[in-house]
Amino acid sequence: MRSSSSPFFLSFNSGPGMVLKAFFPTCCASADSGLLVGRWVPEQSSAVVLAVVHFPFIPVQVKELLAQVQQASQVGVAVLGTWCHRRQEPEESLGHFLEGLGTLFSHEPWLQLCRERGSKSWNCKATRRQGPTPLAPACEDQVMLIFYDQRKVLLSRLHPPAALPERQAGDATASAGGLAAVFDTVARSEVLFQSDRFDEGPVRLTHWQSEGVEASILVELAKRAAGPVCLLLACLLSLVSAASACRVFRPWPLSFIWSKLSTCEQLRHRLDQLTLVVSAHRAEGPAQLMRKANTLVSVLLDMALGLLLLSWLHRKDRFAHLAEALVPVADRVAEELQHLLQWLMGAPAGLKMNRALDQVLGRFFLYHIHLWISYIHLMSPFIEHILWHLGLSACLGLTVALSILSDIISLLTFHIYCFYVYGARLYSLKIHGLSSLWRLFRGKKWNVLRQRVDSCSYDLDQLFIGTLLFTILIFLLPTTALYYLVFTLLRLLVVTVQGLVHLLVDLINSLPLYSLGLRLCRPYRLAAGVKFRVLEHEAGRPLRLLMQINPLPFSHVVRTYRLPSCGCHPKHSWGSLCRKLFFGELIYPWRQRGDKQD
Amino acid sequence: MEDERSLSDICGGRLALHRRYYSPSCLEFCLSCPRISLRSITAVTCTVWLAAYGLFTLCENSMILSAAIFITLLGLLGYLHFVKIDHETLLIIDSLGIQMTSSYASGKESTTFIEMGKVKDVIINEAIYMQKVIYYLCILLKDPVEPHGISQVVPIFQSAKPRLDCLIEVYRSCQEILAHQKAASTSP
What we know:
The complex is a heterodimer.
Chain A: E1 20-25, E2 34-41, E3 46-54, H1 59-73, E4 78-86, H2 92-104, E5 110-116, E6 122-129, E7 138-141, E8 143-148, H3 150-155, E9 157-158, H4 178-188, E10 205-206, H5 217-244, H6 252-260, H7 262-278, H8 286-315, H9 318-345, H10 355-379, H11 383-392, H12 398-412, H13 414-442, E11 444-447, E12 452-455, H14 460-510, H15 513-521, E13 526-534, E14 543-551, H16 554-561, H17 574-583
Parallel strand pairs in A: 1-3, 1-8, 4-5, 8-14, 9-13
Antiparallel strand pairs in A: 2-3, 2-4, 3-10, 5-6, 6-7, 11-12, 13-14
Chain B: E1 2-8, E2 14-23, E3 26-32, H1 38-59, H2 63-83, E4 85-93, E5 97-104, E6 109-115, E7 119-129, E8 132-142, E9 150-155, H3 164-186
Antiparallel strand pairs in B: 1-2, 2-3, 3-4, 4-5, 5-6, 7-8, 8-9
Helix pairs in contact in B: 1-2
């Protein structure tokens, strides 16, 4: 229906006023005379030239080739006009011959490009018949020449990707906006570029690959080897995931521990990613391919960094030093905590505490620390072996090593976490009690049914006991609040350190290194758009422009191709965090995805 | 054919408007901003180094001086590459689109191209900027969903900030080409 070879078809948008744009590949600018082959886009009044067919040719064979290409690529390839690259003296016979071709391959409008050899002056003419009969007078359109680098346009990908139409029979609807249609045409016509000048085909073409099809031995070998390697890796990974899902790890204490450790989370994430990469399905589209490549490069870099870390640790027997330093450090931390508690039990910062409560709380926490120190001393002979075995896991990747570090920090500061929970629970109990008794003091009550504060008439003895309790609680508030404040600050410190480690792990997990490398080395592959440059212009000659690819900025590359990660983001805003701190609710600022609310 | 005029921007600095007419359907306007002056570079460098020397006499640490030199160099390079715009160009090609290029002092160029199918109109708009009312030229983009709506307003010559006389000239030329484009696109 939209076949461009019908002489009765007139484009509705391109009247005589609209300038005709001819997209011409730079590789064909020095080719010999011949026919122009490409696609005509009537909505934008543009002709995308894909190749030049040289003399001598047999018209029937040219038509056959074009039909084959049209079948294979779903692009409406047709003969658009003639190309003449001649010497200084115009050859009259050639001129008539070229015009005669117009009747053979009828196309509206018929393009005639002409260039003098060795000079930069071009001549363009586009003729269009104004009636159904061949004898009707022809009218000429203004032509604008736009040069484009065929190889770069073929390989590049526009962002944001225009909604590419599905492959339909016949000419694809150019619902893609103006320039996206050009990119789309060149990308789909790859089958036209398969033959080079060393082939013995019936038709001689010039296009970007006509000097010889490019290929790399390494890439071809890698492609051949990739199949069996992927199969082997996929089997191994399925074995590992089956082993991890087996019954041994199901019972409750173990599954609870696995869910809390960030190392397991990271290992699971890596396993998922690797399974995706080595799966046997082909990537559906360019986005999937980029994601696979990014994942692979990220995993390889991770392992390389991990091995580097391992070799550095082994070099000067650093494991032994670390193990030796670990127990004194834990001891030191416990000692500092004891000093802190002694300070709180006295008169901290000149404040006067309630002596009895102070002593109770202080002794309680001191006993905990005593237990903790004994536990650490119990473990100290085994520390070096444990550390050595954990260090081996660094060969699985730097992210795993960092996750193990974060887990070790959690385990070593477990007593701070316990103290924080005790302090917070005590404080929140006190605050709730205080608020309820304060309402009683004013003669009001919380209505659970209506979720609001209502007035209530209390008995005298209720009021008496309530006021007494209120007074007791309010006088004990500073002591509890101080303990709560101190332990919350310690807990926040530990959480900040862990958060930084997790941030680093997240960064390594989600950075799209392959895309960034591509943007650095082959910027034309990721295109944000195009840019034009006006070439030397002489009066009376057609306007010549050079179309270049405008590469995507680095920030957009990261944003578009960012890999999905474990999602370690702070779940609360600052306002809700402050509110929770004030009321003594427990906070878990860094939540992994899939954690249940406590 | 080419045309060059000397104008001023909203703060009184000198601008040069360079107009190139390639063909009835292709026009280019180039606005050159005032160059970076040696006086301001010298003033900033002297201030930073004096402050560093003052710190050095307090702390007796020679790292401060090397750090000051490093910071000055990096700051200058960063300023030339990311902040200081040398000239801004507007290229209008009938039936193709509008292209805006900013060239930085270090030679970096950042280009944006808007296809003609997305351009609704080019207008001069007023804005209140601190205590002044300024005029700026902007491109209105069509909304793909609503035929009479505007999806985005793209200002042109944002760092050169020329005055109304320059804007009127650019506006007239743009409107000529856009009118031609509209006539061509609506004719049967």
